[in-house]
Amino acid sequence: MGSVPGEIARPTQLPERCDLAIVGGGIVGLAVARELIGRNPRASVCVLEREAEIASHQTAHNSGVIHAGVYYEPGSLKARLCVEGARELYAYCEQRGIAHERCGKVIVATDPAELRRLDELERRGQANGVPGLRRIDATELQRIEPHARGIAALHSPNTGIVDFAAVARAYAHDVLATGATIATGCGVHSVRAAGRCLQLGHARGVTEAAHAVFCAGGWADRLAVAAGASPDPRIVPFRGAYLRLVPTRTHLVRSLIYPVPDPSLPFLGVHLTKHIDGDVLIGPTALMAGARDAYRLGTIRRRDVLDTLAWPGTWRMLARWWSTGVVELRHAALRSAFVRAAARYVPELRPGDVQPAFAGVRAQALARDGKLVDDFVFSHTQRALHVRNAPSPAATSSLAIARHVVDEAERAFALSP
Ligand SMILES: Cc1cc2nc3c(=O)[nH]c(=O)nc-3n(C[C@H](O)[C@H](O)[C@H](O)COP(=O)(O)OP(=O)(O)OC[C@H]3O[C@@H](n4cnc5c(N)ncnc54)[C@H](O)[C@@H]3O)c2cc1C
């Protein structure tokens, strides 16, 4: 696994009432809790987290990359919140002494057919205000990454690495330091609007909250529907498995080496990433999973499978992307094929250079029409705000997302400090 989730003391007594409840103790929920408290210091705030520990899901199972904002459509929420969020995250890590490194990244074209897409990425990155982004040639690529090969590349010196679970733990400590509650082992299963409050039914009873923000990652759609929102989009889980370079071969990658992605998919392709703990990872795959917590390939949950199969968008997506699915299946099943995909950029890589690492599960929102929803999505129901799609780079963007969500909440609920 990438990093150790956060152990937070479980309060013996849960408040029966609070002003603001946050459902989900991942990096987004904890950032939102922190921001809400910062703007409403007199409000009582309670985070309800289903697992025994905070940050157990996507926050602790990812590439650990602080994205600079290159990829995203100018004007999108992702473009704005990633660039702002990365800047704020670096400052936060500095201030809190959280290990991180601004190691830079290259996006490598190996084929002339990819050059137009590289142009488009450069255009987007410049439009988004990504600091220091520039085009480099094959010689400069080799100076930055001596074992990488390509015909051209983009260099983003402001991309970096961090352990996002460590960041989430720091947010949690900020929250707890104000006297707010973080209740673990507290999965919310029902949401009922009752007069001037919401009744949140959970594993440890009922908490009444004047308002709530739902940040439930892979389970966001279920809670939104429970609160009366539209079932569109649905979360479909995509498993992303990683390999790790054996210690004698980690010198093949100095920092972060990425392919030129397919612009019509919200995934960045198989990349090679140095981790803050010194490991070098290759991955992730992107395979539809049999459970929203399918950290092991064999984990299958009946309800998750039925939800995926019953969603019209699933079949429309499969009709469009079946050939990409076949490639992903090959990568997941055959380590040699997976390594070959990465060897396009680092030709010295051999199947014997890797060992299995961990897997993450992407909470990917899928629209009824079969579109993989790319941008961050937020919506509201009575007294509640829902984070419906917060895939990568939401960990990078967490502080900026929190600001955006709390701005929305202030507008929707007329919250005032
Ligand atoms: C393979 C992979 C690689 C990635 N790489 C990067 C990267 O390099 N950089 C980057 O910025 N982003 C990356 N991401 C994306 C990033 O990890 C996520 O966007 C981010 O962690 C989302 O945070 P979250 O808090 O919304 O979700 P999560 O971390 O999944 O947290 C959701 C929380 O809600 C809780 N919950 C769910 N249901 C309930 C319930 N009913 N009641 C109470 N609690 C509940 C869960 O237990 C969980 O703790 C990656 C993601 C994956 C999967």
Polypeptide structure, described:
By secondary structure, the protein is α+β, with helices and mostly antiparallel strands. The protein contains 10 helices and 20 strands. It has helices spanning 27-39, 77-96, 115-128, 138-144, 164-177, 220-226, 302-309, 312-333, 335-343, 398-413, and strands at 17-23, 45-48, 65-66, 100-101, 105-109, 134-137, 152-156, 160-162, 181-183, 188-194, 197-202, 205-214, 234-245, 256-259, 271-274, 280-283, 287-288, 354-366, 377-381, 384-389. Strands 5, 6, 7, 13, 14, 15, 16, 17 and 18 form a 9-stranded mixed β-sheet that branches. Strands 1, 2, 9, 10, 11, 12, 19 and 20 form an 8-stranded mixed β-sheet that branches. Strands 3-8-4 form a 3-stranded antiparallel β-sheet. Helix 1 crosses helix 10, helix 2 packs across helix 10 and helix 8 (312-333) crosses helix 9. It starts with 16 loop residues before the first strand and ends with a helix. The model has no long low-confidence stretch (mean pLDDT 93). The structure holds flavin-adenine dinucleotide. The site of flavin-adenine dinucleotide (FAD) has 41 residues, from helix 1 and strand 18.
